[in-house]
Amino acid sequence: MRIKKKVIILTLLLAVLASSLVLLKEGGKKEIAVYDISVIIRGKNNEEWSIIKAGMEQASSEMNVNLRFISLLEENNVEEQKDYLEKAIDSGTDAIIISPSDYTALSNIIENTNKKVPIVLFESKIDTKQNIPYISCDNYELGKKLAEEVIRNGNTRKNIIIAKSDLEFSSLVDRYNGFKDEINKSKNTYEVIELPKDDSKLYNEIRSIMEENQETVLVAFETGELEAIGRAKKYIINDTNVNYDTEVYGIGRTSTIISLIEEKIINATVIQNEFNIGYLSINTAVNKIDHKKIDNNINIESTVINSENMYSKENQKILFPIVR
């Protein structure tokens, strides 16, 4: 009996010791950091931003980030962005990622915010001497690639019509300059026109351009404008049964743009790897919060997409990224 009691007591002691060791081990576990990060885009939360957002969400799930994705009520509204910057600071966010809607007008507030909360710029930048991380493709090179594609398709002596864009934010200025500098190496001429926002007026304007300049080239540097021009061209072709020889080129990707390239309504678009922009923006913000060494200029690759190459494995990955 005494032996049994000793065995029981010893077993109980071992059980208590094991439990204590488990508790000590659990108590010694390092607490996992959770980051609150606010993202302020320069437009509405539509398909144009969906791939960037998907990249951010993927990174957030891997890096313990509570992501707050903030869109605007009005495209490229400086005052809205200023207001959201102030609200993000008041909310106690750990970092702010922003695509500035104006190169100069937002410089002071972003610089001042960066002194209080880590800032990361993506897709467009500001006029600053501060070392603020910037994630984007080389937009000058992107514009240059677009011009090269126009010329590659045999356009050497044509009149190119460029849809006027809002040149207040840096990415569009760089795209325009890259395109202009490259196209000036050819014998093409170009003019910049302002297109109406209303669909019915836009269709009439595009139809007029196509009828008066049947062998012209239309170029847009913004996703929304490229999509609208492509839809207008398709409508005109289907409605009039006349296939005017007007080529359309631009920058950006949406499901509509991809479909119009398949139908050869849009001749080509140049896109950046938007998923990587989103992913690396979150990664950079987390590293900045943790005071880790970071690269202040991260260049993302850009690719020309046309009906000939859109089905390649590499381009399919860019057009339709798989989110894990």
Q: What is the structure about, briefly put?
A:
This protein is of the alpha/beta class and 324 residues long. The protein has two domains: 35-137 and 273-300, Rossmann fold (3-Layer(aba) Sandwich); 139-271, 3-Layer(aba) Sandwich (Rossmann fold), CATH 3.40.50.2300. It has helices spanning 2-27, 50-62, 78-90, 107-114, 139-152, 170-183, 199-212, 223-240, 255-262, 274-289, 313-319; strands spanning 35-40, 65-70, 95-98, 119-122, 134-137, 159-163, 189-193, 217-220, 247-251, 268-272, 297-300, 302-306.
Characterization of the model:
The chain is an alpha/beta fold. It has two domains: 35-137 and 273-300, Response regulator (Rossmann fold); 139-271, 3-Layer(aba) Sandwich (Rossmann fold). It contains eleven helices and twelve strands. The chain has helices at residues 2-27, 50-62, 78-90, 107-114, 139-152, 170-183, 199-212, 223-240, 255-262, 274-289, 313-319; strands at residues 35-40, 65-70, 95-98, 119-122, 134-137, 159-163, 189-193, 217-220, 247-251, 268-272, 297-300, 302-306. The strands form two sheets. Strands 2-1-3-4-5-11 form a six-stranded parallel sheet, with helices on both faces. A six-stranded mixed sheet has the order 7-6-8-9-10-12, with helices on both faces. α5 (139-152) runs parallel beside α6 and α7 (199-212) crosses α8 (223-240). The longest helix has 26 residues, at 2-27. It is elongated, with a radius of gyration of 26 Å.
